[in-house]
Give the backbone structure.
Amino acid sequence: DADVTQTPRNRITKTGKRIMLECSQTKGHDRMYWYRQDPGLGLRLIYYSFDVKDINKGEISDGYSVSRQAQAKFSLSLESAIPNQTALYFCATSGTTGQPQHFGDGTRLSIL
Amino acid sequence: GENVEQHPSTLSVQEGDSAVIKCTYSDSASNYFPWYKQELGKRPQLIIDIRSNVGEKKDQRIAVTLNKTAKHFSLHITETQPEDSAVYFCAAIKVPGSARQLTFGSGTQLTVLP
């Protein structure tokens, strides 16, 4: 089945480390998104990309960067991780605006 | 930009009872409203959506209603079962339009008590 795959699923690291979360999809979708989920705050958009050359900041992009290596791959980086970036991170894809978003299984990131 | 408020943040119901979750949105131009269900430890998944050209949509035990005048839409779950326990998110967007991403509500933790 076409799917959205995130790696790693869990990561524990220390303050100041550089971290990369990866997302790949076999749905053939052009649009990819990175969200952060914290208890009581729902899903907050970090970055989104509508194609390889189109990358946009979301609601909470400070402290994060992204790379769209190909239509199927969208990576999220934390250049110098800090404890308040501890959260559950989701990648999602969609075909076009107004079509449902399909989420990956998430990456649980803990920064000590 | 769009702002979506979701209530309640937590909801407990007895098995077999109905549950209702309400969302209000700020941009009257929004016309697509999906609902996602997230079971514990799992990914959010679309369960139902509605477009502004209809006032209600049903799929078995779940339904969504839309009141464009009041700018609110609601998720209704009838005959609740333990497997309905999850976090539910609403969202809104105008399509086509200048907005390029969904705006999500903050989520409702639904617990169905046996």
Remarks:
- The interface with chain A takes residues 6, 9, 32, 34, 42-46, 49, 89, 93, 95-97, 99-102, 104-107 of chain B (CB under 8 Å).
- Chain B has a mean pLDDT of 93.
